[in-house]
Every structure is written in structure tokens, then in C-alpha cells.
Amino acid sequence: MHHVNVVERPSLGRCLEASMKVSAGEILVLEAPLFVSAPVDDMGRLAEQLFKTAFAKPSDLPLVTQLFISILAEIVKGHKASVLSRLSQLRGHPEQWRQTVGQLHESLREEHVSKVEHDELLDLYSKLAANAHETDDKRAAIYSMGSLAEHSCRPSAFKHVHGDAHELMIRALTDLEMGDVVSLAYIPEYYPTWHRQELLRSFNFQCHCPRCAGEEAEVACAFVCPDCASPCCPPRPCLSRGDFEALVCEECGCRVEDAEQLQAFRDAELCERLCESCTPHLHPYHFKIFQMYLGNLQMVSPEQRLDILEQLEDAHGRLGNRVHPLHAKFEELAARSLQALSLGTGNAEASAEARAEAVSAARASWERAAALYALTHGEEAEQSRHCQQQAAMLDGPAPALPESSE
Ligand SMILES: [Zn+2]
Ligand SMILES: [Zn+2]
Ligand SMILES: [Zn+2]
């Protein structure tokens, strides 16, 4: 099932656009894989059939190589024409893989050498490297439509691979008009432009999204406004670290142009660690603080975690989209923390009222998480069902007080 068209655009090349009006949360693409890599337990046997030289440990092979081996096994069985034609739509970057594929081709068993040309293998490997997706069960799969979606640092859609059939599902994160480009984020979005572009280079992507190519404020580089302490950001995308000539406050609108002040902010951004001298300048919405909190969520108390989650949600929401898998995750973690806190009110001092309130806050949070997951992953997805179940378990009367031990 597809609500997309494959089109050729002068600026983007081949891409997907919505073939009809679609609301946030609706399915744009649902497709079965062209190929899935063989189970990892079969890798050793397949590799041995194909190659003279043994691989140290087949289960350690990169997923792309596992997929390559699985498909190559089909090719040497005599299915070359059908295999290659199924992949003919896809594109890759062969120049990067010349050496890898050269070695693989060299080590092919004698009886297979005549069955496939070196250049065909290079073409195959580079297509897989550029387009393979990792599945839930740690295999690699390749899709036709799913590989054509554009990258954007403000994606209009989200993809995930689900179920035993490894179907790829792409859902809209925003309302789309017919003809709007369907884009996915291939990297985490909460970074400044220069860092996103560094990450994208490894995918051979050049991003033309408004955050990269437009005139948007660099909201992930937020400093503390000298006048009102609100986030104060470069008014244009930063193409290198600390690359800004002025900052504009999101709240009071003041413009920071003082050379000394700007240098202090630049130094804070360039500082390698989060230390006493840089942190006072960095707003909690600054990407360095954001990433630090994101990495430390499990190490703090439930109360602190709730505060941090709210901050992360606010920061990330400034990118323009709260229907987002990361926001669903934030809400799920908040629900978990609220639930832990509601159990904490099970002691004798807490009033029945306080307990009921804590439980109902946790339930509401699970419900919000379930609703968000339903939009990003679908109602039937594992994540949504888990949150629905948690909410349902908190329905009904508050848990009874534990018996006093005295
Ligand atoms: Zn971009
Ligand atoms: Zn201000
Ligand atoms: Zn520092």
C-alpha cells in the first residue's frame, strides 16, 4: 500500500512525494522487503559455500555484508537476472566499495567465478550499503520505495521495520498536501548545521532542508540571553563550530553583537568539556547540554528525570514537530518516572488523595505516550500496546497500602 509517487525533481533527484492529502500519523508506505539477510546462524554455512577463505566469525560481519552474502547465494544458484532486476531501481556509491568488493570477488570459489562479474558485485554491494535497513531482529533488509525517501533535518515522515515479515512502514509526522516531499531523518536532528552535515557526509548526503540551506535560526546553539536568560541563538545556520556574528534572543528579541560577549559564547561552545567556565553561558537548550541530558537520563532520580524530560521535550519541540518518535520516547520515560513516584507514595504518610493523584498522573502520561506511538509506529506496534497496557493497569482503584510491619 502506498500513498506516494516516485518523482524526479531538479533539486533533489529521485524522491517520494505524497500522492494525496495525508494527515500526521497516517501510513504513506507499507512494503515487504526485496530481500532480508539470512538468519545469522546460517551465515557461516553460506559464506563457506561462496568463498575459499573462511571469515573469522560470520556473526561479526557487518549487516550489509551479511545481506550481500545472502543475495550472492541466490545469484550463484542461477537467479542472477531476477535478483539484479529487483534491485535495478536503487542507487549506490560504487567508488567507496571498490576495495571491499575486490577482496570478496578474489576469494569467490572457483566454481562461482564465471557466474557473476566483478562490476555486478560492486554495483550490488554499493546499492546494499547505501540502502539497507536494520530490522528489529538485527538482520538487514532492503526495500524499493523505502530507499527513495529524501533526508531532511526536519523530516515529514518516520520509518520503521516491523513484525516477522520485516515490512517497512513509513508514516507521516506532519499533515502533507498532495505533492509534498516525503522526507526522513537519517541522523539525530538536535545538532547544529555543521555537525549534521558532518554526519550526513558519511551517507553521501547533501541536505537541502530549510534548516541547512535556508535562513533559519540555529536553535540547537542556544546561549543564555544576557538580558532575560532565555535562549539566544544565531539567526542563521552555523556552517562551522562557533560560526556566528550575532545572536538573537527568542524571548526578548534583543540582539547580542558585543564582541567580547560573543567571544565568551564562542569559547563556551568550543570548550571540550561541560565545565564551570562554559556551562553558565550555555542555555539548557544548547545541543551540548541536550546531548548530555539525553545520555544521562537513566542515572538520575525520577523527580529529576521528569524535569529533564520536560526540558528535552521543549528543546526538541522547537525544531517544529512534536509528533515524533523521540517525543513518544520522552513521554514513555515520563510515564515510567511518574509510576515510580506513585509507588513511592505507597507509604503510610501519604494521603489517599496524594496517591490517587500520582496514579492518575502516571496513567495520563502512559495514555499520551500510547497516543504518540500510535501516530509514529501505529496502534498495533509493540510500543503502543505496551503503553496502553500500562495505562489500563493503572485504571480502577489506587493500589492498597502495604500492611504495616509493626
Ligand atoms: Zn538539513
Ligand atoms: Zn532575552
Ligand atoms: Zn567547558
From TrEMBL:
<protein>
    <submittedName>
        <fullName>Smyd2b protein</fullName>
    </submittedName>
</protein>
<feature type="region of interest" description="Disordered">
    <location>
        <begin position="385"/>
        <end position="406"/>
    </location>
</feature>
<dbReference type="InterPro" id="IPR050869">
    <property type="entry name" value="H3K4_H4K5_MeTrfase"/>
</dbReference>
<dbReference type="GO" id="GO:0005634">
    <property type="term" value="C:nucleus"/>
</dbReference>
<dbReference type="InterPro" id="IPR046341">
    <property type="entry name" value="SET_dom_sf"/>
</dbReference>
